[in-house]
Amino acid sequence: MQTAPKKVVNAWAMYDWANSVYNLVITSTMFPAYYEEVTKGADGSNEVQLLGRTFVNNALYNYALGFAFLIVALLSPILSSIADYKGNKKSFLRFFSTIGSIACSGLYFFDGDHVGFGIALVIVACIGYWSSLVFYNSYLPEIAAEKDRDRVSAKGFSMGYIGSVLLQIICFVLLFKKEWFGLSTAGQSLQISFLLVGIWWLAFSQIPLTILPKGTPSANRPNHNVFTNGFIELRKVWHQLAAMKMLKRFLLAFFFYNMGVQTVMLAATLYGKSELAIPTDNLIIAILLIQLVAIPGALLMSKLSAKIGNIQTLMVAVVVWIGCCIAGYMIPKGGINEFYMLAAVVGFVMGGIQSLSRSTYAKLMPETKDTTSFFSFFDVTEKIAIVIGMFSFGFITELAGGSQRNSVLALMVFFIIGLLLLWYTAAAKKQTPAHETA
Fold first, then answer.
1. Is residue 151 very low, low, confident or very high in pLDDT (cuts 50, 70, 90)?
2. pTM higher than 0.70 for the full model?
3. Domain that includes residue 365, residue range
4. How far is CA 62 from the centre of its chain?
């Protein structure tokens, strides 16, 4: 196949531009800091009451995200089956981007008196964001030839980082120059920022939703109920993996190292805020630094993969992540400069490892019209890993009486297992047909 026209590729990448503001403002910077502040007790305690149980506020946040990812993992096989059969992946992309963006805007009304409401919106926004990515990612093998997939995938991530940083700068102005807009508190500035995230996501997503193709319906009618057919399709993918040794080993490695990557990304801000006592202003600057460094990081890792191979490049990245876990555990309380340095390193490997993982999977998967089913399998693998990672992080935090340091160190175990499995994957290359290598 040939790579789609530039207009289509650019439109596809624009969805990263549209939705990455959720990942930066809501997941990584402003909302976690806002959440940690408004859920503190009047006496400075970090406990909140919800559903008749007392939670450490940070652990509750981790549990909420873990629950959202579990819902995504359960939904995506069903939805992917329908999308493959009817060829309507664009409709699902539109639906989930819409509910996600509206939930982000709804966080404008979240405060310490409405913790349950805020947690519910966090869950819906997370489901909207990650479910939409199932269908967004499945476009990659349809619009990019195999030789161009690393480049196109990296372009998407780069556009996402640029777009999210632009909105983050606007939010910075709202926060640091609130008097220009007649605002009296930082909380008001942050609430308006959440509203802007929803508007940005909804508005710019209209570009890919207008230009991208609708999708190609599967030639085969599903033999089972649509609510079970997706899981049956996943089982078929699982059986196909038996004949694709390298892809099967890569997915196992991805499961473990991505467990660490995603948990770090989702928990980093709360760790810096509550465990390291990094001031909110410095924390936001550090996370912005991560986004800026991630842009060249994704592009350079793409070039490195062209020289030494995808699997070997991923191994290099995972080794760096292991070092980041150790460094994160050792940073002293109030260590702003150390946190900045760690942020720069994390940013460099963060975008690259995600982009390269996605394109490696696209290169290793077989030629098929049911691309959504294969990417659903990839997505379910990713989401189950995140569920385990987030619940583990929250559980270890509660066991440690609210301290998150042991949780950060425990993530290193996931990366080490992932590294060993990547080495195991590379060992399969000599036994793998040329069209299945990366």
1. confident
2. yes
3. 6-214+234-431
4. 14
